[in-house]
Amino acid sequence: MARFDLSDAEWAIIAPLLPNKPRGVPRTDDRRVLNGIFYILRTGSPWRDLPGRYGPYTTVYNRFNRWAKAGVWGSVFKALSEQSPESMAFIDSSIIRAHQHAAGGKKGARITPSVSLVGD
After folding, report:
1. Which residue among 60, 61, 93, 110 has its CA within the 20 to 30 Å range from the CA of 30?
2. How many domains is the chain built from?
3. What CA–CA distance (Å, rounded) separates 83 from 5?
4. pLDDT value, residue 120
5. What range defines the domain where residue 70 resides?
6. Is residue 8, in this structure, part of any structural domain at all?
7. Do 63 and 38 form a contact (C-beta atoms < 8 A)?
């Protein structure tokens, strides 16, 4: 178990909230996938650089997107904040760095809404 992997108490809270639609192929362990998702979110690494211990990066990425579209993350964060407040510390301590040229737009450029570009 890695340093920031889910504890047994956190997993007990999250496990019932995850959708489980069995298919023909055996599923990759949800806990392992969640730990992979949290690793990517915590480190900011590209999905392709996910360590092998979390499973195939495509599986982790696809499940992250599928759960986002299904609204799973909202219920997970709500349950964790209510039942295990100490596990939510990582949300407040995140830092998102911008690329050094992120603010370097063209000087004096006029931003025109796309609606006004269409003629009547």
Report:
1. 93
2. 1
3. 18
4. 45
5. 31-92
6. no
7. no
